[in-house]
Amino acid sequence: MRHRAIGPQPPRAVGNAVAPCYTNDRRDGRLLLLADHGGQQQAAKRHRRGRAPRAQSDTGSGTARERCIISAWILITISLIYIGVLFYIAYAGDRRGRMMRRPGPRPVVYALSLAVFCTSWAFYGSVGSAASDGWSYLPVYLGPMIALLILAPVLRKMLLIAKQQNTTSIADFIAARYGKSQGLAALVSGIALLVVLPYIALQLDALTTSFNIIVHGAYSRPQTEVTLAGWTDTGLLVAIAMAVFSIAFGTRHVNPRESHQGIIRAIAFESIVKLGAFLIVGAVVTFGMFGGVHELFAQAKNVPAFRDLFNQPLITPRFITILILSTSATLCLPRQFHVGVVENTETRDLNTARWLFPLYLFLMSLFVLPLAAAGLTVFGANTVDPDRFVIALPMHADMPWLTLVAYVGGVSAATSMVIMATVTLATMICNEIVVPIALRLPGAQFGHRQDLSRALLNTRRILIVVILILAWAFYRMFATSQTLAGIGLLSLSGVVMFVPPMIGGIFIRRITRRGAISGLLAGLLIWLYTLVVPIMVTQGWLPGGWMAAGPFDIGWLAPQALFGTHFGDTLTHGVFWTLAGEIAVMASVSLNTSITLIERAQAVAFVDLGMRRQPRSTTDVRPPAIRVGELEVLLQRFLGPQAARAALHEYSGHHDRQLLSNQIVDASLLQFAEQRLAGVVGSASARLMLASGLRQRDLALEDMVRLLDRTADAVQFNRNVLQAALENIDQGISVVDQDLRLVAWNSRYLEVFEYPPGMVRTGRHIADLIRFNAMRGECGPGPVEEHVRKRLEHLREGKPHRFERHRRNGTVLQMTGNPMPGGGFVTTFNDITEFKRNEAALTRMNEELEARVAKRTEELSRANEGLRRENQQRAEAQRAALEARREAERANLSKTRFLAAASHDLLQPLNAARLFAAGAEQGSASAQSTALQQIQMSLEAAQALLEPLLDISKIDAGAWDVKYQAFPLSRILDPLTREFDVLARNAGLVLHAVPSNAWVRSDPNLLRRILQNFLSNAVRYTETGRVLIGVRRRADHVRIEVWDTGPGISEDQLESVFEEFQRGTSSHASGERGLGLGLSLADRMARLLGHEIKVNSKPGHGTVFRIHIERVAPETPAADSPATEPVAAQPIHRALCVDDDNASLDALVGLLKRWDIDCMTAPPEDAHALLADEPFDIAIFDYDLGEHNANGLELIESLGQRFQDTRFILVTANRSQDIIARAEAMNIGLVYKPIGPEKLRETVRRPVRGGEIEAV
Questions:
Q1: SS3 at position 1076
Q2: Out of 218, 454, 538, 955, which residue is the most buried by the measure of CB atoms under 10 Å away?
Q3: pLDDT one-digit tens code per residue, 892-921
């Protein structure tokens, strides 16, 4: 899509004036006008006070400038999308056609479908008509309003007649009135084709011209058309597209009443689209381009072309003529008759249409005059075709979106008319001309089984193509020389010929078939002569002298001055003589020809519909001499033999008298018979029948026709009531007569068996349906004909039956058949699938209920047992609670003892160290050296006590991170054996270890400490003998045992051996005793791992400690990864110590200097600078550097990788796993407080492997 910019243009000379130029300045949303008056150019002022710009015509070169060009393919794409939406709506409407039979949107859809009246003439041409002829556009909208508001009784009568006669078109309607004359139907169809072709050509012209204008960007009709895929005739392409759409919409199937609910929905949607598009264009032009209605007309008054239009009188002969044409078109235009009469579902829908359709027309006409004024103001009177104002104004304003809106509105207006008109014409021509001719052809034979629906569809499709080709030819010959309004009025003037035979036919009985045919032929000839011949003269097809002098110089035969008459308007002249000639000929021929019987019958049916004559009552005349036997025969004809006899028997019993066949009927019995007949044929018909005396008085022809009609109405009413009752029953129902032929059914029956369309019809033998179902497997296994034979025997024998059939789709069908008294059979089909499911569910529920009762009984028994056990458990719980309280008290007491023991044991070495320090102050050098050694031993004892206490507190707090893994026991047993073998030999003992290759799942570090404690105690408390460590395998567990030959543990001490500070007595000469925390710590570690520790001992015979561990299968060792080479030990010469505590720094420096290491100290904030200035081999950071500084680990992290030659060591008392993980990630050594000199020296001297961390 490309757009021409609208900027200030130089003024162009127009005569002695200077034509205005427009600029697309949109700062206030409106077009600005630059004008030059008297040679002085003045810039148009922006209208900030709401006053629109003064606009003049741009007539400089005779053609308006290009404003907006849109690609042809964009327009085609939009058109195809729009048609696709319409097709979807029509398709969905056909599929859900039943919804249209229910109240709700149906009346609104019906009313909107009447808006098919508003074609491209209304969308484009009404604006052009207003711009050319002033108020001449107004009667086009007033006519339909008059038809709906004032002539509604006529339209309602047409609806009733059409439903009664089951008519499918206007030709069918008129032909039915005059004895169902086939010739008259063909004549009406031919005239309809002739007068509607110009209207279809009008739509082709509107679509083609608007398409070319938008693509070329020129407001006037382009001299060359758009070339699309090698095609240069846009009109032919449009005609082909319309043919395709019409075939797709209107000939997808044959409908018995020619109803197309899907198309009606699509047309209703199009009515909304074209109304919305017209209102949008009108509103934007009026309020967006000109600032409002007042401003628009204020400028239009300065345009002479607009000012002169409305100086003429409003009511003129032409105004009245157009009003008559538009009113008659609402009733007689073929497409309007189809949507208004044939497609009407309920007569009451007319009530909604009476107010909604006039409202629609009012809205459609709302912006006609403003758009005409805007077009004349902007373009003037002679530069742009007024019929193109609706497209030209958005293009001039450079609004592509508004141009597309106007285009879509025009497409909607044209396509709805073309589709509806072509489908209606094709249906009429096919039904009234082609089919009768085909039936009369020699050798034309059609069997009763032959399906002609496909042939009918193909015929109609061909006719649609032919109609649109003829319309395209008319468009090519005439449309370019006529305005849209002119073409539309030409068609309406031809449609007016249908008014006398149709409207007169429903009110006047005397009009005959010959009169109607003669009148139509006369009207057609006059219409052709007075309105079509002048067009042919204009085209040069007839001599030009005819217009003034008449043919053969007969002046009074001049086409536009027939018989010397002048009406001041050629349209009024032609319409007047067409109607006058037609009515005169029709009246004269009807009065001079006889009416046939069928014509009279149809005349009564049409004229007297809805009118009631007051029939004579049987009480007003003397009862005729009717015998009881004759009355019984009459009753039998309408009630049936059994019902007639039962009625007379009822009367006899009620009046307590016997009726004889030759007995004269009295008034009472006659009234009784009338009541019974009225229930069948209606009260009026029953009264008229009996009043005729049944003898000696014949019914008049009109009364007989009326009687037959009323009887037929009563029968139809009863059938409708029966059908309505059947349709409101959930079961499927089928009724066959005594010949086993189908006579009645409901839609549920069709849904149950899913019969194809057209298969089920009145009179079809039931054997065909049984055979169809048997072939689909509905009757079960077995030969098809055997199933048919069995079921027909049941029906012929009249045996009632009921059985259930399980169908292949899972449903269950209950079929109940009963014979009827007068012969025949009625069968109901009930889908009991849900009932069967509920029945099965009830059976299951009963079974489940019985099971639940048994279960509840058992549960009650168990509950009683449970109550008994609960009482026992409650007693046990009370005992447990008492025991727990005692245990808590013991724990509290143990805690107190623990704290006292810990305080005593911790203060003991500290107190000793203090005494040794005090003694060393005044002693000799040797004494001081001894004191220092004693102080060192005391501090080491305190540290040995603190470390297990810290481990115990960490386990109790749940802060110990257990790392489970699968490993062989030899990994920890072999090192322990080697370590304790030395200790055992030093103690004079023998350590014996049994090797094991068993694999277990545990934390190897914690397990090693547990076993180390067991071995340490065994070596410590065994004086002579040996110590044994081994493994026993038990199913999925292993049991590690440590045996010794020590003094043993008494039974009363076994319960407290795992408590804190519980120590045994050493038998060693040294008398060394433990701290009493090892087994307590081992017990906590075992519980943390989920392992079980057991101890057995016998005083004097030794002790055995056991631990049970989960056993796992050996794992295949992974391929050896490249070993991490240890970093070569580097000599330590310089060290940096960082701490915020000077005393700790001095002690650490003194210790390092004893190891010949040059030390420097620094506060935390100077560490970075010192490391950057001087090289250090190691840097020792304290973790806690004060609350205002980062901790040691964060400080090391901040140094990054810049000091890779310096090894970092972190000193901390915090043993959390987070610190360990972070230190390990950065390859930092860890030393826990209190610092042991040997542990520190080991950490400082020992090199670290890649990824390994030291924690000592």
A1: coil
A2: 218
A3: 665 565 555 555 555 556 655 666 666 666
